[in-house]
């Protein structure tokens, strides 16, 4: 009997994974999310991946912690647009560099404004890839529709080209993906402007209501059928840990009740691993300062499990 090796990737020749530490948190206002890469790395994710047979490279981008001297005026009511833009431009270059070597990347945030960088980099190197966004939130506010001014609520609108006019700080961001290659799972806190965009552009989204109604198996099947039929596209999986229920992921800045169970998030990662199309994984919004020791450990262990499972832990 021959088994398909779990390392047989459809798009990548080698078995190289770059773990990229992105200590950045100015896409929102709570301190601590920039400390997460250190905590997540210390949980042993590099050893996990080595055990699975990968060559692992750890890349740090420590300069993301340094804010520009002056924020400068912005036309919009955005929080720290210059800092977010500068950091994302830097992160994008580092991520694209790793992807260009033929490696898969794990982008360890940091807050979800880094999605501007991760999607830009993935689409530059793998221009046909699809994006599966796992989140309680849609993060598709435009600078105008954003209720908070926090850019971690806006990355998807920027890469889809929906932010009009584009704030001057983000003119470098290309419209690099189209609505037919983006799907969401886990939504349960969507702003009115976001709902309008999702409907207007026909973006497939599966809320927690759909997860309850159809079960996670059908939901993942429908989401992948919409954006990656027949696994012909590389996959970018962007996991905001607040997609998971706050009872097991309390250390995050925008908790919303009624999230994915541990098995449901693992199922998503397993199903993506099984496609052998994963080129990039984001793990964002862990904030170790927002919970007690136990809550923090639980959150980090979920982040660690997301990484090793997406890279094939359960595959035989
Ligand atoms: N990546 C996140 N946790 N995003 C939360 C976004 C919350 C809200 N929709 C906003 O725009 O501010
Ligand atoms: Mn979120
Ligand atoms: Mn998010």
UniProtKB/TrEMBL annotation:
Its cofactor is Mn(2+). The keyword Methyltransferase does not apply. Keywords: Arginine metabolism, Hydrolase, Manganese, Metal-binding. Pathway: Nitrogen metabolism; urea cycle; L-ornithine and urea from L-arginine: step 1/1. Pfam families: Arginase (PF00491). Binds 2 manganese ions per subunit. It comes from the Eukaryota. It is an enzyme of class 3 (hydrolase). Gene3D superfamilies: Ureohydrolase domain. This is Arginase.
């Amino acid at each position: 009997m021959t088994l398909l090796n779990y390392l047989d990737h459809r798009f990548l020749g080698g078995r190289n994974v770059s773990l990229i530490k992105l200590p950045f948190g100015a896409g929102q206002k709570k301190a601590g999310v920039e400390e997460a890469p250190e905590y997540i790395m210390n949980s042993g994710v590099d050893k996990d991946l080595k055990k699975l047979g990968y060559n692992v490279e750890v890349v740090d981008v420590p300069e993301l912690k340094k804010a520009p001297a002056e924020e400068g005026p912005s036309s919009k009511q955005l929080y720290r647009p210059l800092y977010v833009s500068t950091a994302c431009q830097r992160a994008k270059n580092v991520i694209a560099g790793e992807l260009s070597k033929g490696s898969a990347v794990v982008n360890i945030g940091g807050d979800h404004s880094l999605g501007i960088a991760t999607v830009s980099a993935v689409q530059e190197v793998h221009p046909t890839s699809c994006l599966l966004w796992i989140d309680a939130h849609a993060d598709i506010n435009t600078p105008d529709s954003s209720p908070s001014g926090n850019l971690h609520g806006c990355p998807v609108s920027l890469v889809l080209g929906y932010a009009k006019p584009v704030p001057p700080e983000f003119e470098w961001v290309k419209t690099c993906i189209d609505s037919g290659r983006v799907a969401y799972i886990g939504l349960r806190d969507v702003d009115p402007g976001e709902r309008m965009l999702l409907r207007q552009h026909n973006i497939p989204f599966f809320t927690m209501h759909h997860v309850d109604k159809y079960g996670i198996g059908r939901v993942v099947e429908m989401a992948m059928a919409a954006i990656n039929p027949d696994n012909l596209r590389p996959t970018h999986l962007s996991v905001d840990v607040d997609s998971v229920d706050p009872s097991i992921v309390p250390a995050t800045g925008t908790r919303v009740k009624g999230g994915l169970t541990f098995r449901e998030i693992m199922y998503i990662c397993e199903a993506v691993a099984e496609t052998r199309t994963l080129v990039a994984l984001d793990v964002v919004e862990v904030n170790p300062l927002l919970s007690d020791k136990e809550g923090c450990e639980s959150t980090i262990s979920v982040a660690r499990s997301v990484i090793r499972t997406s890279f094939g832990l359960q595959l035989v």
